[in-house]
Amino acid sequence: MRIDKLLCDMNYGTRKQVKEHIKNGLVHVNGVAVVKPEFHVDVDKDEIKIGGKVISFAKNHYYMLNKPQGVISSTEKGPTETVIDILADENVKGLAPVGRLDKDTEGLLLITDDGKLAHNLLSPKKHVDKTYEVHLSNKLSEADIEQLEKGVDIGDEKMTLPAKVEVMDMADDEGRPVIHLTIHEGRFHQVKRMLEAVGNEVLFLKRLSMGSLVLDENLEPGEYRELTAEELSALQNKQ
Asked: In whole angstroms, what is the distance from residue 147 CA to residue 131 CA?
């Protein structure tokens, strides 16, 4: 690949700016200054530096974000902070959230520029499990749990797929009941609508996992990190 194209693709400047970097002797390949923008590099073998900093070339990027409340799952700039704004320092083109979390929902969100993986994780045919921590206004009855685990009518053409309900022993700080709810679809406001269907109300919602990917407990809301090789492999192997 041409060195100027590589650096442009990695957001080190426009083609004109990259040429200026090369002209000013800021770009080195294997310890030797590059003098021509058309110089070809092997991204798998060559050590590439710009301004003395080694850069690594990755075809795709994968980040785990603990999405905070008040931030929207959008790639479009606007008056409200987006999940892409949080990752602005990564300087990566084409990042997008895999699915969406409501503005008032927090928790696990995968951010990537790997469109194929995102498509597979979101495909209705895949039925990828998603588990949520749900704080409720009222305690679920046995009949409510049975309904949720069989599937409920939320106003769509089809009933929801059977869910998994785990009633937690603990209540939240305000004494409200807490459940873990695992669903296998990604319909609009699905969790909230499912609980409404059994006469309840969701007061707090946090996504804990998506497929094999589990939210890192060390990530505070608004923090993120790259996926580990093991996490990425597990996601890819399920597709």
From this structure: 18
- Res 239 pLDDT > 90: no
Note the Cα 107 to chain centre separation in Å.
Answer: 10
Q: Provide the mean pLDDT of the chain.
A: 93
Write the pLDDT tens digit of every residue in 50-65.
999 888 777 789 999 9
Q: From CA 146, how far away is CA 128, in angstroms rounded?
A: 21
Catalogue all structural domains in the chain, each as residue range(s) with its CATH number.
3-55 (3.10.290.10), 62-123+216-237 (3.30.70.580), 130-210 (3.30.70.1560)
What string of DSSP letters covers the chain? Answer: -BHHHHHHHTTS--HHHHHHHHHTT-EEETTEE---TT-B--TTT--EEETTEEE---S--EEEEEEPTT-B--SS--SS-BHHHHTGGG--TT-EESS---TT-EEEEEEES-HHHHHHHH-TTT---EEEEEEESSPPPHHHHHHHHH----SSSSPPPP-EEEEEEEE-TTS-EEEEEEES---TTHHHHHHHHTT--EEEEEEEEETTEE--TTPPTT-EEEPPHHHHHHHHHT-
Q: How far apart are CA 200 and CA 138, in angstroms?
A: 6
Using alpha carbons, list the distances in angstroms from residue 211 to 19, 31, 185, 215, 221: 44, 43, 11, 11, 20
Q: Any catalytic annotation for residue 169? A: no
Catalytic residue among 102, 113, 172, 216: 102
CA distance 151 to 163: 7
Q: Which pLDDT band, with edges at 50, 70 and 90, does 127 fall under?
A: confident
